[in-house]
Amino acid sequence: MTTTTDATATESSTPPAEPAGDETVELTIRDAIALALREELIHDEHVFLMGEDIGAYGGSYVVTKGFFDEFGPRRVRDTPIAESVIVGTAIGAAMGGLRPIVELMTINFSLLAMDQIVNHAAKILYMSGGQVNVPIVLRMVTGGGSQLGAQHSQNLEAWYARVPGLKVACPATPYDALGMMRAAVQEANPFIFVEHSLLYRLKGPVPKAYYTVPCGSSVVRREGRDITLVGYLRSAVLNLEAAEILAKDGIEAEVIDLRSLRPLDLQPVITSVQKTNHAVIAEDAWLTGGFSSEISCQIQEQAFDYLDAPVQRVNGADVPAPYSKELESLAYPNVDDIVRAARAALA
Amino acid sequence: MTAETQAEQPAASDWPAPDEHIRDTARSLGLSDEQLVGFLEQMQLIRRFEERAAEMYTRRRIGGFLHLYVGEEAVAVGAVAALRPDDDIVTHYRDHGHALARGLPPRNVMAELFGRRTGVSHGKGGSMHLFDVERHFLGGYAIVAGHLPIACGLGLAAQYRGQDRVCLCIFGDGAVNEGEFHEALNLASLWKLPIVFLCENNLYGMGTALAAASATLELYKFANAYNIPGARCDGMNAVDCYRAVRDAVEHCRAGKGPAFVEAMTYRFRGHSMADPELYRSKEEVAHWRQRDPIVVLRTQLLNAGVLTEERAAQIEQQVEATVDDAVQFAEQSEPPAPSELTTDIYADPSHSHPATWHRRSAVGETTHAEDGR
Fold it and tell me: Residue A178: what are its φ and ψ, rounded to 5°?
């Protein structure tokens, strides 16, 4: 069989064209994800959901509410709280011809399945010499900011993005959430679908016509000539707010949403930096060894001569997430931090 | 290790003397004389294959780890014989014997050990990661107990699709203390998944004695905690392994959920080629070697008149030729091309499910979920 290399984004399969139409509806990210899951359950008998409290309870983030009644316990499977066997079962089921979609509740709990995700799902295609692929979708909620304390508030998606063999999607709009979830279920590979807890209620337009969003396709959210703001998930949203504030001072920021961390499509960022000569990278995750370091490094590798100032990183504080509201607000970046970093880069 | 724990280890003498009526026993299980001879031949193939592999390892033709199965052959041969060709197998890293018993060509298994592109995993897996999808041999895995959850998924796939296939999941005594073992047994039983959990208890997890690692020495009893029937068999006797696994397979195939078999066995050589074996006595090894599954079965078959010395010699010659051919094939095979470093990391969209082409948007439709809100 032929396979793509790690560096190349796999194009998602294009479904047959539907009647074109500009009609859209307003959805939240939560509804968009639920809609994609429902479409896949309806259209493919091989697709099933499994996870902690997704059935009778309706999902701890209410994404799968009503699914249990509609599709029954065979297609919507409540599991024991046993992350490793949940993911391992998904892997085996995928090897046996099914299309499992797993909800692991939060990314913090996915660490109990790290062995299955990193040692198994990401390796089986390679170590079988291309014989066995593992088409699974692992949904997990990332992020803090809700006073849930140190064990429920981490942003760990970049850890998974380090692993060849995995794909990691980080949608920050309802449009992307729907399009990327469709693409994820149609994927041939282990796909980690990261959902930020604070973005579930974010609303946006979604076309009625069918579309998918391939993993590995960064997008320019706002054009500008002065500075490039890069982010994903919550920081992709904050960057847009920061751009509004900067615009009042006549600073035109170009805002880029990475949409996925692996494959990583950095071309729009490089092109943008060649134009703006300045860059700020924002993410909720810890500073040390963060994904912002990777992006910063690639910018200097590919656009060093275009930079007029060091790349600025705006990250979460290098601390376990505190409970106290006052302390927690200091642990994650906010819009002001991004604005300040942009001004520092331009100073 | 303390003297007390040493004393607690199961011993070779715990088992009865070789069955004098092996032919009758086999017949009562529906095994023909030819099948019995086949068991012996397969065990000899595994033994000679591995002895040659060890030789090739010392000559540096084989790299990495090499975990030999020498002494444990009866388990693979008896267990795999109890399966249908479309039943799935997942196993641990000491997997050469299982692969050969399953019928993976010795040439391609040896080529995998040599790291050649003609290997069963195209030289990318190695000794510990033998795969052959066509033969439903879905991998050797090198994280202890890591493949038990995967067996649950293979069992689920069969059940979900209404197929009566079972999954044979082979692991060692070292796996039972991992959390994944307990997670997998619980889920398999809860969902009544068709999985035969086959524990090859060779009494040592690497160099740590079972008695120093496990709170119970009767590992099949773990299954009882999860409402799974558990049984023990003589892992130095291929016919007994066949019997136990056949019963377990029947249980699974009847839709009654998983079954558990503990095969009491012993590896005659070190954990891997790098093992100086400081943790056990030469006397202990010698004692177990007296129960060598190949020597015992050969003698039994000769005594029972199932086998003649002439036929036995013929088989040994044939095995030797097969192994010679495998080594020669591996020697002459090419390594993978440099470009193969970066293939097989992601499967291409041709691996996507065909149902992709029938999807349509449900945006704007009223859903059951929305009604419920």
Answer: -70, -50
Q: Active site includes A278?
A: no
Give the sheet arrangement for strand B230-234, strand by strand: B137-141, B88-92, B167-172, B195-201, B259-264, B230-234
Q: Which of B15, B17, B41 is nearest to B306 (CA)?
A: B41
How many residue pairs from chains A and B have C-beta atoms closer than 8 A?
263
Does some domain include residue B1? no
CATH superfamily assigned to domain A25-207: Thiamin diphosphate (ThDP)-binding fold, Pyr/PP domains (3.40.50.970)
Q: Which of A120, A152, A196, A278 is catalytic?
A: A152
Domain A219-346: give its CATH code.
3.40.50.920
pLDDT at B351: 64
Q: Find which of A29, A81, A99, A126 to mutate to test the B interface (most B CBs within 10 Å of its CB).
A: A126
Whether A1 and B149 lie within 8 Å, measured CB to CB: no
Q: Does A43 participate in catalysis according to the annotation?
A: no
Report ipTM (2 d.p.). 0.94
d(CA B26, nearest CA chain A) in Å: 34
The number of residues making up chain B comes to 373
Summarised one tens digit per residue, pLDDT across range B138-170 is: 999 999 999 999 999 999 999 999 999 999 999
Is position B3 within any domain? no
* B5, part of any domain: no
CA-nearest residue to A8 within chain B is: B346
pTM equals 0.94
Domain boundaries defined on chain A? 25-207, 219-346
Query: What is the CB-side half-sphere exposure of residue A270 using CA atoms within 13 A?
Result: 13
